[in-house]
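Re: weekly structure request thread

Next one in the queue (318 aa):
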Amino acid sequence: MSKLVWDQLGEKTYETGVKQGVLYPVQTGGSYSLGVAWNGLTAVTESPSGAEASPIYADDIKYLSLMSAEEFGATIEAYTYPDEFSVCDGSGSIATGVSIGQQTRKSFGLCYRTAFGNDIDGTDYGYKLHLIYGAMASPSEKGYKTINDSPEAITFSWAVTTTPVALDGFKPTATLIIDSTKVVEANLAALELILYGTVGVNARLPLPDEIATIFAGEAPSALVLSTSLPADAATAVVVSSSQVLTFNNKILEDSVIVTTAAGVIIPGNKSYDATGKILTFKSTVNLTAATPYLIAVVGVVDIYNQSLAPVIRKFTTA
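Done, posted below.
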């Protein structure tokens, strides 16, 4: 067993700041599928409560202690807030630009980032992502004062309570923290693509089970197109059949299209299976008989932020 040493170079760490706040109002069905940037966020004070001991006595002595359930709360402070937060703050709209209060408050999720520094790299050492689920904001004071020779911007503040969400293998939780200095970089990049969105894909807050899946492996497998149906160069394909692509990793976004040999895009609908690995394209019209078609597998990115080189598959209808 080695001797303990204190305050070694690079081991003096600290956490500071708050930035890149994202609000995720709960959508129909309970998903956090539409994130919006929270500008003007100044502070998030996390306030766990509970986990208090209740002593039990027997035989004239302390027999044991029962621990109460732990709850997670927070206080959010900001100079402003997104319009989408209004429903979370109990506001309703009766006309454009006209709002009312005392309405039913909507649950929301929150993501924000803090700097994680040390004595060598400072705040460039790393950062932590903080995710909050099942949050409900309580009414807060709004103090308006006359403008004087030392004007100050109004600071909004909300006390937040939470309802934990399920996590396989653990007790339900309302908070999750990711340390950039300890996780696989590709996995963290994949999560941030989901949290912050990409071109054409809305930002969303994944549930803890999905995040556990993202970080389960030490390194993701290289993204490949495992199979395609019809097979490449297939003939006598039924004109009403669907085109099915199977990938080895869960897909985050794609630009897959089906075209004629001349490049005319075939209209249709795309859908993924529950694993997010199998893409099915179903044209909204029957294909033309005895005609060659192309499946352009382009713009495919998996949850690990890995891109697939463009692939073309050909088939001919019966």
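The chain has a mean pLDDT of 91. The longest strand covers residues 122-137.
Next request, please.
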